[in-house]
Amino acid sequence: MADNQAMRRALFTLLVLVPFAAWPAGDAAEGAKLVAEKKCETCHHNKTMGDAKAIYLRKDRKVASLDKLKAQVARCNTELNLQLFPEDEENIVAHLNQTYYKFSPGK
Predict the structure, then answer these.
(1) Which of 2, 6, 24, 59 has an alpha carbon within 20 to 30 A of 35's alpha carbon?
(2) Other Cβ atoms closer than 10 A to 80
(3) SS (HEC) of 38-76
(4) Which residues, other chains included, contact 97 with Cβ-Cβ below 8 Å and sequence gap of 6+?
(5) pTM for this one?
(6) What pLDDT digit, counting tens, does each position of 29-76 carry?
(7) Is 106 helix (H, G, I), strand (E, B) or coil?
């Protein structure tokens, strides 16, 4: 009986909890404020020499999964010394995913 319960718990964790761990836990509205406050789009405008949002929408974008989006936000934070807290990064990821990328858990 104990083995059966342990198997059920493990199965529940794998099927229910693990997929949600990859989902952005942040607040998209707060992320939008941070993107504006940290002037992310100004930097992107300078990189694209035009529409700042084009960096998210281009066909050859490097961000092809939720994990890569998280890594890219962390990279911008580190390289540009934005001094974002981990929850700020999660908020930005949630905003960008909701607005542009539309990744589902596990993708």
Answers:
(1) 59
(2) 13
(3) CCHHHHHHHHHCCCCCHHHHCCCCCCCCHHHHHHHHHHH
(4) 24, 28, 66, 69, 103
(5) 0.73
(6) 999 999 999 888 888 888 877 788 888 888 888 899 999 999 999 999
(7) coil
